[in-house]
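Worked example 3. Consider a protein that binds zinc ion.
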Amino acid sequence: MKVTINRWNAISTWHWDKLQDEVCGICRVAFEGTCPTCKYPGDDCPIIIGECQHAFHMHCLIKWLKTESSRELCPMCRRKFVFHSAS
Ligand SMILES: [Zn+2]
Ligand SMILES: [Zn+2]
Ligand SMILES: [Zn+2]
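Given these inputs, the predicted complex is written out as structure tokens:
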């Protein structure tokens, strides 16, 4: 009997492992915690990654993008912030 192992494509492209050690570029709180707006980590406070690979709490990013001075730029690298698609 021949068994084909087809698990190579199971390698995740999700950056969570890497993000564990990193902090939000806006509030400077670690991603394993929540943004200052939230009490508990979880789905209500997801992490948003831009195409520039900078990551922020969703709430921090929304607050930032709403300020006039942001001009929709990434607060870290000042490039236009484009949402990195998760898929
Ligand atoms: Zn934050
Ligand atoms: Zn939050
Ligand atoms: Zn950036």
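Take a moment to read the result before moving on. The chain has a mean pLDDT of 81. DSSP finds two helices and two strands in the chain.
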